[in-house]
């Protein structure tokens, strides 16, 4: 059901156009063709509300009848454009390098060429009339489709399942048709709707220029062309086709926008088996009144059976800093992204519960999310707009979400920048992000999170890009901010030593699952899972012989698409038995505030 005003408007307009195309010719067809020598070139009257043409035919009836032809021509042009575009866009994936470069270069040149000129040129070359105009508009639309197909195909090409198919030696055209095209079909279809609106306007333009539909046929553009010569004497004769063209163009463009927005929100991959449905509502249970963040059975899946986060549960309580630790690729960042609603398309997030202070995260407004949840990422430049001054960006949180004036917002921004110990905060607020050092930028991002009233701060590897001294300062700042603001924090890191220093509790992830959760105080000596123990053992201490290479865990973590039935760590585990590889160990209690998933220690 459409919900936003633009969705309602687009649904009404498009339905109207389709109904008109179906019922227009049978109902008003005869009136549109009826020649009346006594009513030639008349203006508006009761009998002819939009006037008549040079043969005395009723213009209102002609506008209503022309809808079908206009829509059919636009649909044909769009399909031609999409077909040429998808072929051109997909070719670089199957051609040898040189051919691919040639096609890409041609597409780039065509994208830069004005569409209407391309359409006019093609129409003139292929013969004036409806066929030439349709071909012309089709050719003008094609480069846009080609560029979109290329970009989408390139983004899917790096997915694990495409790499796996390539490594299996599948021919390129099969990789393209089986693995790439089905996964980019949905955005292409959405683009088709928007292109239909553009084609309608383009065809009307061609007919208006005299290059399109020729008499005795007529579409809205042709009616506008005929009426335009009389626009100063009887302007109403041009109004009908103008209104029809505008409404149809707006309707299809808005429909494309609405569908694209909806698809981005639901992000269900096209043409692929969908991941398991979310567990039944009652599995969510009752909200934990103690929890700032409650995550139950969180799963993040991508097309092709890639499930990098599998049934993850965790709880963060007020004032607590919980660390998520794991090797690269264990699913830490996707967990953070899923909590923040930032999993990129075409990822699908399912969960039994995802609550912030007892409230379903999906039900929170942008304002509640913007002020209640602060996200700090590894690269502060990714969170700061390089074109804006730091103070202005921070102030935006207050002006957009809290209804503050710009002056109030700026005052609060300077105050928050001082709070995170940026020297001379007024001066820093006037600077652009590139004028600050990496550590200062990260402080500014933390200050941005503090502009609201965050209940939870999610910090995803916030110190990885910084040098060791600055790392320590930022970690100290995070602890201070949590203590002062009363917020809780979820701290993500691959470094168990850093987690051990900063956090109260640690959640250890391996290949998308929680394998152990324990208080940080139990890490040294109290860890139960062989993986956690190996992580702790790989840390150097005072007695480590620094002349020897650091201990590391032999083997590698399996890629998300290659995780088997049982424990994903079994292949690297010294304690593994045949049961470990065959059966998934459940996460069970192992002493006070301690959970573990391992057959051999429970
Ligand atoms: N857009 C995507 N499409 C398909 N797979 C993805 C996508 N994003 C991430 N993945 C897969 O999910 C897995 C987990 O990624 P994630 O970034 O959460 O790991 P991580 O533990 O944070 O690692 P790192 O420390 O390297 O960031 C990776 O193996 C990656 O291949």
From TrEMBL:
Residues 293-536 form the ABC transporter domain. It comes from Nonomuraea typhae. It comes from the Bacteria. NCBIfam families: oligo_HPY. The chain crosses the membrane at residues 7-28, 69-90, 102-124, 130-148, 188-211, 231-255. Belongs to the ABC transporter superfamily. Belongs to the binding-protein-dependent transport system permease family. SMART domains: AAA. CDD domains: ABC_NikE_OppD_transporters (cd03257), TM_PBP2 (cd06261). Its main location: membrane. This is Dipeptide/oligopeptide/nickel ABC transporter permease/ATP-binding protein.
């Amino acid at each position: 059901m459409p919900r936003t005003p633009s969705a309602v408007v687009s649904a009404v307009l498009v339905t109207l156009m389709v109904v008109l195309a179906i019922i227009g010719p049978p109902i008003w067809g005869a009136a549109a063709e009826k020649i009346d020598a006594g009513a030639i070139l008349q203006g508006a009257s009761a009998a002819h509300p939009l006037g008549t043409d040079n043969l005395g035919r009723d213009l209102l009836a002609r506008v209503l009848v022309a809808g079908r032809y206009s829509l059919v021509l636009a649909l044909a042009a769009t399909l031609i454009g999409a077909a040429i575009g998808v072929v051109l866009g997909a070719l670089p994936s199957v051609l040898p390098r040189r051919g691919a470069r040639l096609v890409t270069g041609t597409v780039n040149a065509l994208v830069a060429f004005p569409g209407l000129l391309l359409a006019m040129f093609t129409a003139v070359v292929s013969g004036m009339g409806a066929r030439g105009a349709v071909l012309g508009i089709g050719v003008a639309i094609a480069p846009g489709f080609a560029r979109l197909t290329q970009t989408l195909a390139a983004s899917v090409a790096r997915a694990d399942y495409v790499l796996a198919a390539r490594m299996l030696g599948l021919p390129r055209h099969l990789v393209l048709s089986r693995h790439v095209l089905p996964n980019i079909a949905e955005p292409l279809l959405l683009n088709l709707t928007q292109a239909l609106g553009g084609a309608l306007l383009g065809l009307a333009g061609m007919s208006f220029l005299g290059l399109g539909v020729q008499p005795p046929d007529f579409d809205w553009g042709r009616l506008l062309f005929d009426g335009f010569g009389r626009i100063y004497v009887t302007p109403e004769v041009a109004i009908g086709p103008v209104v029809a063209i505008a409404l149809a163009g707006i309707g299809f463009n808005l429909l494309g926008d609405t569908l694209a927005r909806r698809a981005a929100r639901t992000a269900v991959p096209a043409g692929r088996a969908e991941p398991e449905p979310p567990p039944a509502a009652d599995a969510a249970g009752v909200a934990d009144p103690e929890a700032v963040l409650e995550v139950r059975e969180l799963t993040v899946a991508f097309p092709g059976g890639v499930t990098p986060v599998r049934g993850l549960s965790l709880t963060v309580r007020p004032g607590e800093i919980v660390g998520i630790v794991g090797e690269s690729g264990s699913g830490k960042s996707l967990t953070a992204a899923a909590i923040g609603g930032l999993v990129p398309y075409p990822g699908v997030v399912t969960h039994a519960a995802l609550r912030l202070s007892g409230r379903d995260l999906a039900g929170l407004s942008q304002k509640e999310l913007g002020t209640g949840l602060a996200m700090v990422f590894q690269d502060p430049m990714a969170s700061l707009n390089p074109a804006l001054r730091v103070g202005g960006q921070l102030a935006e949180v207050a002006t957009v979400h809290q209804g503050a004036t710009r002056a109030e917002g700026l005052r609060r921004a300077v105050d928050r920048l001082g709070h995170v110990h940026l020297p001379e905060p007024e001066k820093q607020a006037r600077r652009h992000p590139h004028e600050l050092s990496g550590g200062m930028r990260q402080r500014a991002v933390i200050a941005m999170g503090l502009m609201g009233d965050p209940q939870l701060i999610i910090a995803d590897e916030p110190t990885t890009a910084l040098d060791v001294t600055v790392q320590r300062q930022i970690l100290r700042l995070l602890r201070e901010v949590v203590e002062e603001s009363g917020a809780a924090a979820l701290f993500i890191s691959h470094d168990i030593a850093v987690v051990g220093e900063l956090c109260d509790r640690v959640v250890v992830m391996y290949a998308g699952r929680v394998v152990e959760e324990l208080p940080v105080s139990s890490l040294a000596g109290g860890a139960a899972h062989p993986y956690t123990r190996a992580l702790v053992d790989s840390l150097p201490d005072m007695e480590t012989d620094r002349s020897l290479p650091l201990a590391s865990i032999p083997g590698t973590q399996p890629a998300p698409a290659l995780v088997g039935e049982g424990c994903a760590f079994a292949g690297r585990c010294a304690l593994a038995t045949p049961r470990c590889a065959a059966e998934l160990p459940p996460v069970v209690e192992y002493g006070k505030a301690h959970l573990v998933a391992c057959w051999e220690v429970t």
